[in-house]
UniProtKB/TrEMBL annotation:
Family classification: Belongs to the anti-sigma-factor antagonist family.
PROSITE patterns membership: STAS
Top-rank taxon, per record: Bacteria
GO molecular function: anti-sigma factor antagonist activity
Alphabetical list of InterPro entries matching this protein: Anti-sigma_ant (IPR003658), STAS_dom (IPR002645), STAS_dom_sf (IPR036513)
Protein name per its UniProtKB record: Anti-sigma factor antagonist
Record-annotated STAS domain positions: 19-120
SUPFAM superfamilies, per the entry: SpoIIaa-like (SSF52091)
Amino acid sequence: MRTSIIQEDRLGLIHYPANGWTVVEVTGDVDAHTAPRIREAVIALLNEGHRHFVLDLCPAPFLDSMGLGMIVAITKRIRDREGSLRLTCVNDKILKIFGICDLRRIYAFHDSVDQATRRAPQRGGLARWPRPLLT
């Protein structure tokens, strides 16, 4: 079941379960305006008991440094709850930002939600973060 968290002109955020993961799909730019709202939504899901996340950035056309900082911040929160995080992204411009900041090697990137959720999550998937993750 897909549940809408935010539906505005600049940001759409839904979540749904997939093979033990909570997929959070972001539609719209991930920037200084939207990043705090995304962070709050993921923290609310953590507080509801969700632990294993796929952040689906495939529908997102843009990500800036505030968006990148938000992803690092939620990664720390998820790690503290012994959860896991995978990212989906096919946008070369967004992937380049992760590469420039040398974060591409420490996140598990996938081309689709189906690919990211193929294997069920394991507890403590971020226990070694920020060392390079295995996909």
